[in-house]
Amino acid sequence: MSESNNEDKLELNKIRKAFKDRDWNEIKSSDSWAIFKIMSEFVEGFEKLSKIGPCVSVFGSARVKQDHPYYKMAEEVAAKLVRHGYGVITGGGPGIMEAGNKGAKSENGKSVGLNIVLPFEQFNNIYIDPDKLITFDYFFVRKVMFIKYAQGFVVMPGGFGTMDELFEALTLIQTHKIGRFPIVLVGKKFWSGLIDWIKDTLIEAENNVSPEDLELFTVVDTPTEAVKVIDNFYSQFMLSPNF
Known about the structure:
The protein is α/β, with parallel strands linked by helices. Helices cover 51% and strands 12% of the residues. It contains eight helices and seven strands. The chain has a seven-stranded parallel β-sheet, sandwiched between helices. Strand 5 (153-155), helix 6 and strand 6 (183-186) form a beta-alpha-beta unit. Helix 3 runs parallel beside helix 4 (96-106) and helix 3 (69-83) packs parallel to helix 8 (223-235). The relative contact order is 0.12. The mean pLDDT is 90.
């Protein structure tokens, strides 16, 4: 059987399982054990990350190869962040995530990897500090860790997962659930279409967000500019990464 047929079969089984009737004992048993697993992931995350110090989360595509300009930019961003006193948090996998951990490691900085168990694409990279690698089953627990322990966010070009992480941070800042930490989008050409859509559709046509929400993020083109945005943000409060 081909790989494609196997994937189709797995998806069909998942859909069928969602419609399958379960008795109360099955529901109670399954959901109760899921709660314990979720709790264990939160506990491990809190314990390992509570003392890592000031860090910046770097988001981006898992599919970018080592010779791609975005990989090199992410590596440079991470190295500069470490030189400026920050540690680096990534999703722990390949692509931009690997580049972020590699850049942090090259400067002997804190290199954190929040890995996720997936059927394809994801495996932890070799540049994560061994005591700062955590592997999650649940995306929502992992996202809490990205947000809770970061003092800023650098978002490189990426796919659905990157967009999910970006809009999670934007939503929490917009709704005042977390502080107004700096969010930096790297790559003006990549992000221009999304920003135009936010302006033209979400703001002007539909009034779904406010014009001032555009101030929640900054778009830059170089690693130097990205790190400068974060440094400038904290200099307003006379804070350094040693806070």
